[in-house]
Amino acid sequence: MLLMAVILPVCSGSTAEEQAELISNYDQDNEALTFDNSAWNYDEDNDVYWQINVVYCSSPETTDYESMGIYVPGAYMDATENDDGTYTCTVNTDNEINGYTAETAPIVFPVNTAGYSAQAAPTSYSYSSISSYLEEGFVYVYAGMRGRDNGYDENDDLIYSGGAPWGVTDLKAAIRYYRFNQELLPGSTDLMFTFGHSGGGAQSCLTGATGDSVLYYDYLESIGAAIYDEDGNYISDVICGAMCWCPITSLDYANEAYEWNMGQYSSSGTRADDTWTSAMSDELAEAYASYINGLGLMDENGEVLTLEESEDGVYTSGTYYDYQLSVIEGSLNNFLSDTTFPYTESAGTTMADGGFGGSGAPSGEMPDGEMPSGDFPGETTSDSSIQSTDDTSDVVSASFFDSIINFLNSLFGNDDNAGTGEDSTTDDSTSEDSDDSTDSSSTTYETAQDYIDSLNSDETWIEYDEETNTVSVVSIEAFANHIKSPSKDVGAFDDLERAQAENKLFGNDESNALHFDTVMAALLEENEDTYAEYDDWDSSYIEEYQTDIQSVDKLGYSSEYRQNAYNPMYYICDYYDGYGSSTVATYWRIRTGIEQGDTASTVETNLALALEQYDAVEGVDFETVWGQGHTTAERTGDSTENFIEWVNECSEQ
Questions:
Q1: What is the 3-state secondary structure (H, E, C) of 586-605?
Q2: Cβ(418)–Cβ(598) under 8 Å?
Q3: 3-state SS of the chain: helix, strand, coil percent to 5?
């Protein structure tokens, strides 16, 4: 393998003047930020050197989260054993693993933060969950990071701040720490990659989109992150690539996208005709059309994608509509091309952990296919002085997958299928979680025609050409009604009762959950008379939304500021003021399951289109996967193996 380092620009994103000003006003504690190379542990059986409890900033609010584990193939180290059984190590630049050396090896950072939860720092070591990466020659860095919730003690006194942008701030601090100590640690800091699913996919995406953004500077300073090296040169937090499975992101218009893509086609629950929220659903869909028409996205042929008014549905016409329909058709055509019949369809698909080296659990233990022995996010930690405000004490399943299911169900309330990979085909449905990854009622289809016939069982919405083995789909409405019905209420991400994970993401030290959607806030005020015609209308929502969106965090920054910091589109699309204000990752890999009801399909397609238009991005590998839901979706193969292969390809560029 011939490797060429990807040289990351130092003065992109924030300007050289901004970086110089930051450095001149910052008193950095270099001693606290210097890595201790005399405290390595060694796994002799697998030839791995590792350290945990590596605090990556000098003023952490909580070392349970603001510390990390570093796991290194033994070939990259020369070691001397210490009297206490630990090792003092120096970097060996001669040995190779699969063509990589300690100077050229990629460094991978898992972001395992479902629902924007916290990722606890590891407190122990297990080889099995990281073996694929180390055997490939990668360096694996598992950085803890805070999540959407504040941390409180047993008296409900605040210990540390949660919410945006603290999670990505912490990950940036870990990246900067590694660069500050790059002479002491193996791996190429030009080849740093993040990977994550759902809320973790979103924060992986954000890390890739926000390189050296000035919006993070005050947050980084507040925790004592590494800003400059020992010679006074600015240290970057830019990464080379981001892997994002089902990223729940672009939250400024996530509610609006949800209603345009799915909600407008539903007439039950909060979208039933006798509810005021049914009227808001249509108005949110209209607001999304206005947003799209200003966004300026283009397809691969350079055609601007817009929405037009239509006789049926809310803005279900135009080039943007046609493009989204083509994505659906392409996904099904790929499935038919990839699948060998007979094909057995199971009721649910097991959500792989993506090779994550731990859960988000406060215990931080590294699972090897079993649920960590510590608690899962939301439960009281092993240190009784720290706890989250969530109540998920019923999370008792033995496997890591089951714990993910139960945790996601607790996060999303009425979204009973979140995280399971199951179909979300009925509005406001409920389901029993099962320990089995497949269902005894699985159906086997002998031919592709049999499979298509099953999808068309109540009406013909897919037209199939057996000779070419290709399909066309009648409409997005038909697709949504059969495959992608909404699993969340109106206000899918900014819940009327502040009950969604994203409400917590934009809370502050005074209120753990707050409203944040300015479009919803405006609609509530503008359409009060219309909504008041419905029996279930509650006028108190108007003041609640208006008050919440005026909130500030502990550093005095507004909800809008924090939303910009946590919106990848803010940096990569010229619709936004932040366009070009960061150094965006060079390489992107995005995968999503088409059946998920967790977010609109438009979230990932918009992201991929904007990245394709962004000049500094060299590669966007995007797929929408048929037959899969909110999971580490892949058309073929294993998610971990596919991610590793992609990293290798990017590293060869």
A1: CEEEEEEECCCCCCCHHHHH
A2: yes
A3: 30, 15, 50
